[in-house]
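Memo subject: From amino acid sequence to discrete backbone structure tokens
Keywords: amino acid chain, backbone geometry, structure tokens, three-dimensional fold.
Body of memo: The sequence and its backbone structure tokens, given next.
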Amino acid sequence: MLAHPAHWIAQGFGSGLSPIMPGTAGTLFAWLSFAVLSTRWPHVFTAGNWLAIIVAGFIIGIWACHRTGQALNSPDDGSMVWDEIIAFWLVLVLVTPASLKTQFAAFVVFRFFDMVKPPPIAWFDRRFKGGFGVMWDDILAAFYTLLVFAFWRAYW
């Protein structure tokens, strides 16, 4: 992980090195870091600033995941969790303010879509390779999660 800055980023500052469910560990890191940063510095980590961080993080993630995938000889290695981090930050910035229970529900729904990869996520996952492919399928999982929450809020 420390051999190159791209690995440090792609592997979620070490959270992707979890021997058990690294994607879930990366998503938990995203949740914890979002909560800590937003609570500690609310004037800095506003919704608008989070969206700018997410866009920049997505672009950086394309490079970091591509470089790390090449180094590991595994284009979408399980240890690369930056995609989960960026995508779950997107979910959180769009569902908060929300109770801990609602944030947990968002976590579960996001992990479901990220693991199951319903259409068209699986199609994009097969078609797009490299850093963009790694990052994009998780953005789609975030979109599905946000769609579920939009329906939930509209009808319940």
User: Anything to note?
Assistant: Helices lie at 5-10, 22-40, 47-72, 82-95, 100-116, 121-127, 130-155. The mean pLDDT is 95. DSSP finds seven helices and no strands in the chain. The first helix runs from residue 5 to 10.
